[in-house]
Amino acid sequence: MTITLNAAHAPTDRPVLQDGSALSAIVESIGAHDFAERVLSFAAAVVGADHCAAYQLRGGELSLLVCANLEAAPAGPDLSAYEIKRQLSMVAVDAVRIEIAGIPEAGARACGFAAGRRQRILVATRKADAAYCLSIVRPAQHDPAQDMDIELLRRTAGILVSAIAKHNDLVANKPNLTPALSSLPEIEECVLSATDLSRREGEVCARILYGLSSYGIALDLGIGKESVMTYRKRAYLRLGIGSQRELLIWYLALWSATRSEPEAAATLN
Questions:
Q1: Which of 126, 142, 180, 197 is the right S-S partner for 48, CB 3.0 to 4.6 Å?
Q2: Whether 132 contacts 124, CB under 8 Å
Q3: Which ranges form a coiled coil (predicted)?
Q4: Burial class (CB within 10 angstroms; exposed 0-12, middle 13-18, buried 19+) of 185
Q5: pLDDT tens for residues 223-260?
Q6: How many CB atoms within 10 Å of residue 169?
Q7: Is pTM, for the whole model, over 0.90?
C-alpha cells in the first residue's frame, strides 16, 4: 500500500500528538547519545516499531543518519541503497510519501530480524537541499497500522526530518577531543606555548589535564605534594579560574583555537 500526501493539502483536524512528550523528547535529545533511541521510542509508540533507520540523500551521496533497534532487531541498515533511492525518486519537494509493505519471514531473516514476518513503513520526504527516508519495521503479528497512526507519521515527518538532520550536523561537526587529552607532551606544549605560565606551572596544569592526581604529579616531576598545590594555585590565579573543571574548559577552548588557525591559513592560501 502506498500513500502519497502533500503537506499543503493534508487534513488538519487531528492533533499531532496527544501530549507532545514523545516528540519533544526527540527535539530535546538532539546531539545526545540516546537520540536514535528516542526516535525509535516515538515510532514504537505510534505503530509498535522494533527497528527504525533514517537515511539522507544529498548531492547523490546516500548516508545513514540514525539507526536504532530493540534487542532482537538488526543493528545496521535494513534497506539497500537502490531501494532508498527508488523511494526518494518518487516524492516531490515538500511532499510526504508513505509506503507500507510486508516483509516475508525469509526476507526478515535475511535482514537479521528474529523469526516471523515483519511490516515495513517507509516515510519519504524531500526538502530543497536533500531528501530523507525513514524506515520503520514492526512485527507483522501486531494489529495493522491504523489510518490515524499513518496520518500521525505524515504530520510529524517534517519535524522528525528536521530533528534528525540537525542531530546529524551536530554529531558530524563535533570535534574529536581525544587527541587533545591523550598525549601529555602535546598538552604541555599547548599550555606553555600559549600562556605566560612558568614552566613548572604549565607542567602541573598539563598533568592535571592528563588525569594525574596531586600525588602522581609530585612523583612525576620529582617535587613535593605541597609544591604541586602551590604551582596549581598560582596557575589558576594567572588564568583567572578556580577549579579543575574550569581548567579543562579553558584548555579545550585553547586547543580548538590553536588547531583551527592552521586550517584557516590553509583556506586563505
A1: 142
A2: yes
A3: none
A4: exposed
A5: 999 999 999 999 999 999 999 989 998 998 888 777 65
A6: 13
A7: no
